């Protein structure tokens, strides 16, 4: 796997440094990901050379309402903005549809529910966490901004749950209908779940995030990779090494 100058810069911002011998060899050949110096971590990095697709999640996907089935992207955005399918609409300021690729996306990035800032702005993943996410995506060869974005970022539920509580099953069911339509419109090759709430919902497994990482799951026929939420990585930078392994696993899965 090779990396250009921008990707090497993004890796440095995430906390990874290329050894001097790798930098000297750049003119002759791009360094393989194996030469990237990682900060020490407690657990060994997962094997990413030959990812194995896990068995489908045991959760049976709910029967989706037909409200969103035939909507195009502008109509779906409007439907989300005015949606009253669950009680979260009562206290939201703005529903968060998501942002990134307009027609086709290589990666669909599904995050934990919007925070207060996202609710106020009506945008997915802003602030410092959003900037870190953008650097992570760029390091993996993806982007949600610019002239040709390749990733689309959206929360697992489109409205902020009050007081930061976890979304309830009925709220998750209502928003999964929106997410299913977003998948149909964007036709991504891979789903990347950021954070425990998004990961548990999409995998259907009530396991710790650490046990959900390091393997490829399946969601609605797509490969699904789980990693840390960028807000968590800002608090626990030592886990950026694990996040980098997850991004490598996602990239390998999308390209296979």
UniProtKB/TrEMBL annotation:
<keyword id="KW-0408">Iron</keyword>
<dbReference type="InterPro" id="IPR036895">
    <property type="entry name" value="Uracil-DNA_glycosylase-like_sf"/>
</dbReference>
<keyword id="KW-0411">Iron-sulfur</keyword>
<keyword id="KW-0378">Hydrolase</keyword>
<keyword id="KW-0227">DNA damage</keyword>
<dbReference type="InterPro" id="IPR005122">
    <property type="entry name" value="Uracil-DNA_glycosylase-like"/>
</dbReference>
<keyword id="KW-0479">Metal-binding</keyword>
<comment type="similarity">
    <text>Belongs to the uracil-DNA glycosylase (UDG) superfamily. Type 4 (UDGa) family.</text>
</comment>
<keyword id="KW-0326">Glycosidase</keyword>
<feature type="domain" description="Uracil-DNA glycosylase-like">
    <location>
        <begin position="114"/>
        <end position="248"/>
    </location>
</feature>
<keyword id="KW-0004">4Fe-4S</keyword>
<protein>
    <recommendedName>
        <fullName>Type-4 uracil-DNA glycosylase</fullName>
        <ecNumber>3.2.2.27</ecNumber>
    </recommendedName>
</protein>
<dbReference type="Pfam" id="PF03167">
    <property type="entry name" value="UDG"/>
</dbReference>
<dbReference type="GO" id="GO:0004844">
    <property type="term" value="F:uracil DNA N-glycosylase activity"/>
</dbReference>
<keyword id="KW-0234">DNA repair</keyword>
<dbReference type="InterPro" id="IPR051536">
    <property type="entry name" value="UDG_Type-4/5"/>
</dbReference>
<dbReference type="InterPro" id="IPR005273">
    <property type="entry name" value="Ura-DNA_glyco_family4"/>
</dbReference>
């Amino acid at each position: 796997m090779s990396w250009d100058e921008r990707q090497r810069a993004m890796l440095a911002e995430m906390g990874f440094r290329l050894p001097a011998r790798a930098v000297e060899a750049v003119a002759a050949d791009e360094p393989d990901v194996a030469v990237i110096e990682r900060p020490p971590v407690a657990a060994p990095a997962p094997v990413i050379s030959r990812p194995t697709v896990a068995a489908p999640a045991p959760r049976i996907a709910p029967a989706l309402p037909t409200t969103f089935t035939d909507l195009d992207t502008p109509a779906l955005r409007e439907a989300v903005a005015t949606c009253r399918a669950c009680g979260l609409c009562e206290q939201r300021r703005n529903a968060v549809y998501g942002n990134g690729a307009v027609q086709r996306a290589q990666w669909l990035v599904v995050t934990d529910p919007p925070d207060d800032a996202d609710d106020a702005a009506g945008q997915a993943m802003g602030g410092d966490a959003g900037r870190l996410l953008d650097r992570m995506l760029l390091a993996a060869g993806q982007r949600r901004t610019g002239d040709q974005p390749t990733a689309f970022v959206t929360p697992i539920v489109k409205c902020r749950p009050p007081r930061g509580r976890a979304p309830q099953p009925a709220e998750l069911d209502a928003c999964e209908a929106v997410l299913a339509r977003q998948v149909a419109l964007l036709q991504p090759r891979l789903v990347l779940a950021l954070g425990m709430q998004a990961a548990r919902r999409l995998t259907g497994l009530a396991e710790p995030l650490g046990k959900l990482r390091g393997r490829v799951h399946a969601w609605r026929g797509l490969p699904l990779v789980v990693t840390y939420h960028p807000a968590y990585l800002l608090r626990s930078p030592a886990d950026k090494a694990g996040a980098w392994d997850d991004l490598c696993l996602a990239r390998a899965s999308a390209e296979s």
